[in-house]
Amino acid sequence: MSFTAEQIATVLNGTIEGDSSVVVNNFSRIEEGKPGTLTFLANPKYTHYIYSTNASIVLVNNDFVAEQPVRATLIRCFNAYAALAILLDMVEKTKPQKTGIEPMSYIAPDVKYGEDIYVGAFAYIAENVKIGDNTKIYPQVYIGDNVTIGDNTIIYPGVKIYQGCTVGNNCIIHAGVVIGSDGFGFAPEDGVYKKIPQMGIVIIEDDVEIGANTTIDRAVMDATIIHRGVKLDNLIQIAHNVEIGEDTVMAAQVGVSGSTKVGKHCVFGGQVGLGGHITIGDNASIGAQSGIISNIEAGSKILGSPAIPVRNFFKSSVVFPKLPDMYRQLAQLQKDIEELKSNLNK
Amino acid sequence: MSFTAEQIATVLNGTIEGDSSVVVNNFSRIEEGKPGTLTFLANPKYTHYIYSTNASIVLVNNDFVAEQPVRATLIRCFNAYAALAILLDMVEKTKPQKTGIEPMSYIAPDVKYGEDIYVGAFAYIAENVKIGDNTKIYPQVYIGDNVTIGDNTIIYPGVKIYQGCTVGNNCIIHAGVVIGSDGFGFAPEDGVYKKIPQMGIVIIEDDVEIGANTTIDRAVMDATIIHRGVKLDNLIQIAHNVEIGEDTVMAAQVGVSGSTKVGKHCVFGGQVGLGGHITIGDNASIGAQSGIISNIEAGSKILGSPAIPVRNFFKSSVVFPKLPDMYRQLAQLQKDIEELKSNLNK
Amino acid sequence: MSFTAEQIATVLNGTIEGDSSVVVNNFSRIEEGKPGTLTFLANPKYTHYIYSTNASIVLVNNDFVAEQPVRATLIRCFNAYAALAILLDMVEKTKPQKTGIEPMSYIAPDVKYGEDIYVGAFAYIAENVKIGDNTKIYPQVYIGDNVTIGDNTIIYPGVKIYQGCTVGNNCIIHAGVVIGSDGFGFAPEDGVYKKIPQMGIVIIEDDVEIGANTTIDRAVMDATIIHRGVKLDNLIQIAHNVEIGEDTVMAAQVGVSGSTKVGKHCVFGGQVGLGGHITIGDNASIGAQSGIISNIEAGSKILGSPAIPVRNFFKSSVVFPKLPDMYRQLAQLQKDIEELKSNLNK
């Protein structure tokens, strides 16, 4: 498919600067843009590429000011990244969709499912499962007894959902994700650990996306809850009885310990670790690799292990490499003062 | 099923305080307890909920002292958490158990297996595998050639066990676990890395539980060994030739490098990293996110990266945010002293 | 199979010291060496074991100098570890190889594949896939539409490769790896996150090994690229549009954020985290658990979070536990100086 700048600007409600008849048939990144492709500029780090890119069209924010001549046709939009998303979405939707139930899948006789679902070969759907309309279950997925899955949800190959858990509408669960494995609960008894059976479930609400090989444990009782709109990256660990608030995003390899409650609209960098039984307020922003062991107030911006306000962390980190010098200087000062004192006392 | 406080106290060998005829038919968490449910109090952080919970029965430790009136019936036990485990266990055991060999599984002709096993659809059991009695192999599990698995073990969906490894009795291996993948061994040669074939195996002893998507590499020769009673949480990495001592527990996302030996009864927080070729003594306690690069004595309690005694770590962490001030103060003191010196020398 | 020291020395082009007729039929580690086995000494930490090992043959580097009598026959080689690799490789190659296409696998009608491939049961090979000669696809692997895989590559059980990705020749992909899952891209819009469709692919070049449960996300456009000879350990996260240079090795649980470029011949310790949109120069060495948020020059050796030169990190880490003392001393010095000043002003 080919589109002119004019057609694209119409879709995006954008303003054209340059040749409105130029045609593109693919996307590219700005630093590697080829003629006939459309690219975008959202991250200011990449601004210098706009003067050299060979892409034919560049989506830019309305407030972009060119400091040199730009060869490409510009389309100015309210938000270049969101505009790109709209275009990518349109292309994505033209792709053929999988439907139907492939042979060599296993679906228990009492499973209830809606219209236009896809079930791939070697998928296993156990007893009393309910699946909504338009949902796709890829090959080799395991859905345990009594699981409920909503409409328009995509479960990629090899996902494992243990018995009793629920997944909402419009969710995307990537390959290798495990939902509902036992929480890590043991009672020490005479030097060995006795397992605490984990009787609860996991609830994944609507519009949640979960990255590859992430694991979410079932609650000891009640439920581990991932609320509407949460986005989890790959290889994240969510322990039992955790609750993640609406529209919170977590980058890869974050770990959240048991019974911790994370608020809404929080942003987590990668490899963050949260201790158990704590509360993270809404809109908190937690930098990569932070370690958190106590409650965090709403709106905090923190970093480090243990985490402190971001600005403090960076200021102290700048001093950290000077510690050996400071140590020596301090010793020297002590000596100097002793000397001064004894001189004065003479 | 419903039980009276009296029936439960009898099972647990506990003492009743309050109405011994009250009936419960489910479990709840103390902060969300509903009438007709049983809950427990083990973590002191939750003590205040006991005065407001609507649960009908609360298991408490013998030494619990109420500071306000408690509506619920109390059952005093030696260890409330362990008592809960006993009750949960009883309920768990009433659940119907999977047995039998489902069609669309693959079992090599020479596989030997005991009584009452379960093998789910799309499970693959390769040549010369031995499986004990009452063991459950869920759908989509892969068991390589010459693997041995004991009695009463549960292998959840999608677990992959490479050839030659052994798993003991009463183990629980959660979905997505990989046992016996190649250790990370390469010899640099003319600027490229030549693979060192990994000829050893993994030995999982009895009573081990392994969390979802954890990976345990086979040894270069001999064996990587997880000893009796070890509990590993999700997304843990155990490298080749590692040995983990009996009854050691590790929280999620811990990584243990090659040839390291971990002692018995150790406790690891999440996201800890251990270097290679080191020894961790028995009963060591290693705080979350610690980094360990040298041997650790038995009984140590350490934290940080590099790890130091826990108390030291916290004390130094309190000073860390003051580093910029200290840096300025130190410079000021140097100036002051220079000034004093020159004044004295006048 | 049994071999004499003489036969082995001939293969390795090594020099014998001791009984050249001694026979071995297995490998062992030096600390647990049994008679009739061959072991090796590469890591100096293990040197003391050479005087007590019961192994019959020890491979040592040419420059090894015995400080006590050694019972075993020594074979001196240019590089003992690489020599071991050659022997292990020879044994590995004598093992029977899986070939053929097992029943209960799914291969789309238009798949093109070469000679002597193996496809295990419950493997799913989707439309328009191309697979080279001698490649092994183990059970329960998923290969999406339009994927291309080269010759002599091993895809272990349960690997998931999303549509459109390519894997080169002589690669080894361990169980549970996910290649081509969606990159983590969302545009915030009115407080919720709108998914940016990820239209690119993943390219895995030749001679790459990828450890168990590692995840590599597809690019938003263009490709995430793992170049020739890269070795990734287990549970690593590679985000969208990342590029990893030739012959770079990464230990387990490393996380690389989006659009970051890693150079050639770099060495990463475990649990390192790289920020997004940065460049790591060739031959950089990054210590375990480091956090990197800006570009790193070629050849750097860094450690810490944020990372600084390794020597500085260790020097400062030694001072870190002394911070509380320094803080007190500093306060004391301030007092002393005030006192001195006021004494002088009297």
From TrEMBL, chains A, B, C:
GO MF, one annotated term: UDP-3-O-[(3R)-3-hydroxyacyl]-glucosamine N-acyltransferase activity
Pfam family for this entry, one: Hexapep_2
Keywords recorded for this protein, A-Z: Acyltransferase, Lipid A biosynthesis, Lipid biosynthesis, Lipid metabolism, Repeat, Transferase
Enzyme class, spelled out: transferase
Record InterPro entries: Hexapep, Hexapep_transf_CS, LpxD, Trimer_LpxA-like_sf, UDP_GlcNAc_AcTrfase_non-rep
Pathway: Bacterial outer membrane biogenesis; LPS lipid A biosynthesis
UniProt-listed Enzyme Commission number(s): 2.3.1.191
The UDP-3-O-[3-hydroxymyristoyl] glucosamine N-acyltransferase non-repeat region domain, residue ranges: 22-88
Stored SUPFAM superfamilies: Trimeric LpxA-like enzymes
Active site: residue positions: 240
Catalyzed reactions per annotation: a UDP-3-O-[(3R)-3-hydroxyacyl]-alpha-D-glucosamine + a (3R)-hydroxyacyl-[ACP] = a UDP-2-N,3-O-bis[(3R)-3-hydroxyacyl]-alpha-D-glucosamine + holo-[ACP] + H(+)
Record's subunit section: Homotrimer.
Chain's role: Catalyzes the N-acylation of UDP-3-O-acylglucosamine using 3-hydroxyacyl-ACP as the acyl donor. Is involved in the biosynthesis of lipid A, a phosphorylated glycolipid that anchors the lipopolysaccharide to the outer membrane of the cell.
Similarity annotation: Belongs to the transferase hexapeptide repeat family. LpxD subfamily.
Protein name in the entry: UDP-3-O-acylglucosamine N-acyltransferase
Organism: Dysgonomonas termitidis
